[in-house]
Amino acid sequence: MSQYLTTRELADLLRIGERKAYDLASSGEVPCVRAMGKLLFPKDEIVVWLNSSRTGPQVAEPPLPPIVAGSHDPLLDWALRESGSGLATYYDGSFDGLRRLSDRSAQATVLHIHEDNGFNVKSLKDTVGEAPVVLYEVAQRQRGLLSAPDISDISGFSDLKGRRVILRQDSAASQRLFDAQLEEHGLTRADLNTLPDCARTEEELAIALRDGKAEVGFGLGALAGFLGLNFHPTHNERLDLAIWRRAFFDPPMQTLIGFLNGPRFIQRADELGSYDLSGLGRIHHNGASG
């Protein structure tokens, strides 16, 4: 079955006319995409949208949608596609992912939030408390300044003043870390020549640099060799999956986890470089409440 509803199918589901369905899409009230001049409605997101509008007592918890939200990582994204888990993705940054995990519009989220004494745990607990969520380590990876192939004079944050920089969205943990590093070096975004549009994923940032749209961005070392970019590492970070425990043992998530622990995932990490899988599978938090 298609993962998308047509306007007619959405109208039938909601028992409204097609004109009203068009109006909902035009006003941004309902999740939709535009492709080849047509409106399509992601089925899973429509279910989440409907559940978010419910009122009255909730007798039983609704099923968690098969969506992994949060930060984009090229290695994990590849694994999600190759594993055959059937899990969909919605990448809009670690902090957006925490919100979606909290409101149960995703069953898992990808995190790499730098904290004073580690990664991700405090931010997760600040959002969901001791809810039954498992924090599962995927990898450790290198982050730093990626620059276009013909740019060789940028090696640190102090070199960024006046340079053409591509940013990430504000809900991305990398953008918040980048802003903190600018402040530490006596700079703000106003000191940079930033592109008008941000990169929504790590790959989008790296491709923009390869294509010469910007000189530098704050990205992943794993994409440097793949796209012929220069890379100056500045940070090591831990990439985790925060997963609702009741989804952790379901077939889709277990299929993904099985793939992560298989030889193809290890080989792919070696090919990309800048990944350390020595902590793969380590549980950094396991919420207590049921």
Concise structural overview:
With 290 residues, the protein is α/β, with parallel strands linked by helices. The chain has helices at residues 7-14, 18-26, 43-52, 74-82, 94-102, 121-128, 173-184, 202-210, 224-227, 245-248, 251-260, 263-272; strands at residues 4-5, 33-35, 38-42, 67-70, 88-91, 108-111, 114-115, 118-119, 133-147, 164-166, 193-194, 216-220, 230-244, 275-276, 283-286. It has two domains: 1-62, Arc Repressor Mutant, subunit A (Orthogonal Bundle); 67-290, D-Maltodextrin-Binding Protein, domain 2.
Q: Beta fraction of the residues?
A: 15-25%
> Residue share in helices?
25-40%
**Helix-strand pattern, N to C?**
EHHEEHEHEHEEEHEEHEHEHEHHHEE
Number of strands: 15
Radius of gyration: 20 Å
List the domain count as a whole number. 2
Low-confidence stretches: none
Q: What is the CATH topology descriptor of the largest domain?
A: D-Maltodextrin-Binding Protein, domain 2
- Largest sheet data: 10 strands, mixed
Structural class: alpha/beta
Which word captures the global form?
A: globular
The CATH architecture of the largest domain can be named as: 3-Layer(aba) Sandwich
Average pLDDT across residues?
93
> What separation lies between the terminal Cα atoms?
34 Å
* Number of helices, where a helix is a run of at least 4 consecutive DSSP H or I residues: 12
CATH level 1 name of the largest domain: Alpha Beta
